[in-house]
Amino acid sequence: MTAFWVLVLLVVVALAGKVLTEWWVLFDPKTVRLVDKLRPPFSSPTRAVLPPEQLPLLGVYVLGTDELGRCVFARMLEGSFVSLSIGIVAVSISVSIGILMGGLAGYYGQRRLLFVSIDTLIMRFTDVVLCFPTFFLILTVVALLPPSIFNVMIVIGITSWMGTARFVRAEFLALREQDFVVAAQALGLPEWRIIFRHLVPNAMAPVFVSSTIDVAGAVLTESALSFLGFGVQPPHATWGNILADGRLFIFDAPWLFSIPGAAIVILVLSFNLVGEGLREALSPRLRAR
Questions:
Q1: CA distances from 265 to 10, 19, 91, 277 (A)
Q2: CA pair distance 275, 208, nearest whole angstrom
C-alpha cells in the first residue's frame, strides 16, 4: 500500500512538473546562471549579480544547480513528466500490440493460413523476436532514427509486446472453452463481440499486472538510452540525461548524480511493488495465503 501511495505522489509530481515548467512557468529548467554553477542543495543565489527574473522561486536552489547553473529541482520536475509519460505510452503501445497478436493466436489459432496454422505462425514469430537482445535492438533502431521523445516511445513499445502476447494467448485458450463463450457462439453472436465483450475483459488481469511492471522496465530503458546519449535530447530534461550530465561531476557535485539516480530507483521500485500487489490481489491462491 505504501508503494501505491508513493506511486500516486510521483504521478502528481509529474503532472505538476508539466504544468509548472511548460504551461505556467514558475520553475524554468532552461535558465542558465553561470555565476551560480555547481551550487549544492539549499544554497542561496547570487542576488547581487542575477536579475530578479532569474532568481529561484523558493529563494534557494532546493536541489542545487548543474554545470550551467540551471536549477536541478526545475529540471527534475520537467524530467519526471517526460520519463513517466515515455514509460506509460511505450507500455500502452506494447500492450495494444500484444493483445492483438495474442488474441489472434488464441482465438483463431486453429485456422490455417496456407500450410501453417495462425497460432504457429504468430507464436514462432514471437519466439524469433524474443531471440534478439531487446536493449541492443532498441539501441540499434534508435541510433538509425532521428532522436526524439516520440521515436523513443514507439521503439520501446514495438519491441516489448511479446510477453503480453503470450499472456493473452494463454488466457484466450483457456476462456474459449468456457460455458459462457460456448453459449455466446451458440446464440450466433458475431466473433468481434465475443472477443471484445467476453474474452478480452476476462483476459486482462495478468496483462494489468505485467504492464505495471513493464512501465518500470520502460523507464529504465529510457534512462539507459538517455544516459548513453541515444534517448531524449536536450533541451528536454529526463531523469536519464540529468544522470548522464552528472556522471562527470560525481566527486565535485555528487547531487547531480545521486538525486536523479535515487528518483529512478524509487519510481521503478514503486511500480514493481504495485505490480506484485496487483498479482497477489488478482490471484485467488495468493490471496488465500
A1: 12, 24, 19, 18
A2: 8
Total domain count for the chain? 1
What's the rounded Cα separation, in Å, for the pair 12 and 216?
17
- Residue 183 has which C-alpha cell? 453459449
How many Å apart are CA 27 and CA 20, to the nearest integer?
A: 6
Provide, for the chain, the percentages of residues in helix, strand and coil under a 3-state DSSP scheme, each rounded to the nearest 5. 70, 5, 25
Helix (H, G, I), strand (E, B) or coil at 34: helix
Pair 245, 76: CB distance under 8 Å: no
Per-residue pLDDT, 44? 86
Runs of H (alpha helix) within 57-148 = 72-107, 118-131, 134-144
Q: Where are the beta strands (DSSP E) in the chain?
A: 112-113, 116-117
CA distance readout (Å), 59 to 56, 77, 78, 265, 284: 5, 17, 19, 29, 53
282: pLDDT confidence band, cut at 50, 70 and 90?
Answer: low
pLDDT in tens, 3-61: 678 878 888 888 888 888 888 888 888 888 888 888 888 888 888 888 888 888 888 88
The whole domain housing 32 covers: 2-288
Query: Which residues does residue 113 pair with via DSSP β-bridges, in sequence order?
Result: 116
Handedness of CA 186, 192, 197, 202 (dihedral sign): positive
Q: What is the DSSP letter of 247?
A: G
Tell me, what CATH number does 212's domain have? 1.10.3720.10
C-alpha gyration radius of the chain = 23
Phi, psi angles (nearest 5°) of residue 146: -60, 135
User: CA-to-CA distance for 260 and 262, rounded, in angstroms?
Assistant: 5
Residue with cell 486482462: 204
